[in-house]
Amino acid sequence: MPSVLGFTVKSGWASAIVLDGSTKAPGVVASQRLELSDPADAKSRQPYHSGRGTARKPGRELDTLIASVERFGLRSVDAFIREYEPDGWRFDGAGIVVGSLIDPTQIANDHIRIHALEGQLFRSIVKDAVERRRMTPLIWRERDLYGVATTRLKRSESDIREMIAGLGRTVEGPWRAEHKAAAVAAWLVMQK
User: Fold this and answer.
1) Could you tell me the domains of the chain?
2) Is the pLDDT higher at 89 or at 37?
3) Within the chain, where are the H helices?
4) Sequence-distant contacts of 44-53: CB under 8 A, at least 24 apart
5) How far apart, in Å, do the first and last CA atoms of the chain sit?
6) What is the mean pLDDT of residues 121-150?
7) Is pLDDT of 1 > 60?
8) Please, which contacts does 139-142 make with residues 24 or more away whose CB atoms are closer than 8 Å?
9) Is 153 helix (H, G, I), strand (E, B) or coil?
10) Residue 191 — very low, low, confident or very high, per pLDDT cuts 50/70/90?
11) Which of 12, 112, 119, 179 is the most exposed place for a label (fewest CB within 10 A)?
12) Is the CB of residue 119 less than 8 Å from the CB of residue 11?
């Protein structure tokens, strides 16, 4: 059964969606929160932060922490994908929604740069996990998502929002903005 994945990446976690069906009538197979950092290690959620708005110094501690986050996050995303394979699910692609695509080296403000580095780290974890499964990830900024969707899906934004809200009625558990964004990204992958 071909289907698609959608992810909304946050700092230390992501919303993950499996959609199937068609672009005219997509359906949610699964909606989960994936931990991309080890909940047992508080530092891993914001690895570039040392304290209140200050950067962790480059060096062994930061390198070890980042390597740990990458291992944990890759295993988490891979486990989510593998969970559906025994039932015959095959994934045709993945959409990834992120807060920013700015190169952190271009940011002058130290605190904002720290957040951008963390965004880049968690985005790359999801992207790498998807690529390891031989899928091409498509990445969109959250603030651009509905504009892209109106053009590619040839529907009004209100129609898209209504359709996505309706999908949430079929899901057990929460159906928040990050779940909806992941579903829109997956829907866009279906359309490609």
Assistant:
1) 2-191 (3.30.420.10)
2) 37
3) 60-84, 110-132, 145-153, 157-168, 177-191
4) 44/12, 44/68, 44/69, 44/72, 45/11, 45/12, 46/11, 46/12, 46/114, 46/118, 47/118, 47/121, 48/114, 48/117, 48/118, 48/121, 49/114, 49/118, 53/110, 53/111, 53/114
5) 17
6) 97
7) no
8) 139/95, 139/96, 139/97, 139/98, 139/101, 140/95, 140/96, 140/97, 140/98, 140/185, 140/188, 141/97, 141/98, 141/99, 141/100, 141/101, 142/8, 142/97, 142/98, 142/99, 142/181
9) helix
10) confident
11) 112
12) yes
- What average pLDDT does the segment 163-189 reach? 96
Q: What are phi and psi for residue 23, nearest 5 degrees?
A: -65, -25
pLDDT value for 50: 87
Residue 76 makes CB contacts below 8 A (sequence gap 6+) with 34, 35, 36
Structure confidence at residue 85 (pLDDT): 82
For the segment 161-169, the average pLDDT, to the nearest whole number, is 96
At 99, the amino acid letter reads G
pLDDT tens for residues 89-133? 889 899 999 999 999 999 999 889 999 999 999 999 999 999 999
